[in-house]
């Protein structure tokens, strides 16, 4: 999948997630404000819990909208060996056992997974430990992450 197609899939996923969360927040708000959910005693907390849920979902919806705007305005740039890896580059890393993973360094939306199987691309941001290490790296450079007290070394094998 080329980067333009990947970007389109990310935008589509964020739009879908935003709509799902918007509907969930609306449902929680309606539950919180429903007359039959007014607390009758201190142990009757359904309305209060629903309002907390609606608030959290509204915040998450705002975060997704912000990510959506970031991706809608994102200019896809080709890899520049002089500058190294930057936001909007797709990077393939290979570990010492030969296992590869494909990443897209995006402005927001960390953790999104686009595609399936060997074609799966995971979105990371420069704020993540791996994203921060990748900034400015070039082909054949290595990155090291500590996972569960073990150093994992991965090599940059492809960038576009």
Question: How would you describe this structure to a colleague?
Answer:
By secondary structure, the protein is α+β, with helices and mostly antiparallel strands. It folds into two domains: 3-72; 90-159, Chitinase A, domain 3 (Roll). Helix content is 40%, strand content 21%. The chain contains three helices and six strands; from the N terminus they run ααββββαββ. The chain has helices at 3-33, 46-72, 129-134, and strands at 90-95, 100-105, 113-114, 121-124, 142-147, 150-159. The longest helix is centred in the N-terminal third of the chain and has 31 residues, at 3-33. The chain is elongated. The termini are close together. The model has no long low-confidence stretch (mean pLDDT 90). InterPro entries: GreA/GreB_C_sf (IPR036953), Tscrpt_elong_fac_GreA/B_fam (IPR023459). Keywords: Elongation factor, Protein biosynthesis. This is Transcription elongation factor GreAB.
List keywords for this structure.
3 helices; DNA binding; alpha+beta; RNA polymerase binding; Tscrpt_elong_fac_GreA/B_fam; 2 domains; six-stranded mixed sheet; single chain; protein biosynthesis; Chitinase A, domain 3; 160 residues
